[in-house]
Specification:
The chain is 4% helix and 40% strand. The chain is mainly beta.
Length: 110
């Protein structure tokens, strides 16, 4: 199905199949060959759509297309992509919680 490339990357506890990738940075290429980058907000299995948050459009870059689109500096708060509009979708970066710095060392009491 549409979402199998995404879910392949994630461990699958039965209670939360998509939880590990919510909050991940996602690279999504639309059928129009435009690459979008944003944070995965939700996957709506029922309506076969993906909602990204803080989305930036990188345009068509070097992909073959009849209508080249330049990158756009606008950051969109949310964009909903229908499954039928998505050509490719991959996790660019896992959620940031995994990369928190260690807590500062405890001060020694004199």
């Amino acid at each position: 199905g549409l979402f199998s490339p995404v879910l392949r990357h994630a461990p699958r506890p039965d209670h939360a199949m998509s939880a590990p990738i919510i909050g991940s940075r996602i690279d999504l290429i639309s059928k129009a060959k435009i690459r979008y980058e944003g944070i995965l907000y939700t996957i709506d299995m029922e309506n076969a759509q993906v909602i990204l948050q803080n989305v930036k459009s990188w345009g068509t870059e070097d992909r073959q297309t009849d209508k080249p689109i330049p990158p756009n500096d606008t950051v969109y708060q949310y964009i909903t992509f229908k499954g039928t509009d998505i050509e490719d979708l991959k996790v660019a970066q896992a959620p940031a919680q995994a990369q928190q710095p260690p807590p500062p060392p405890q001060q020694q009491q004199q």
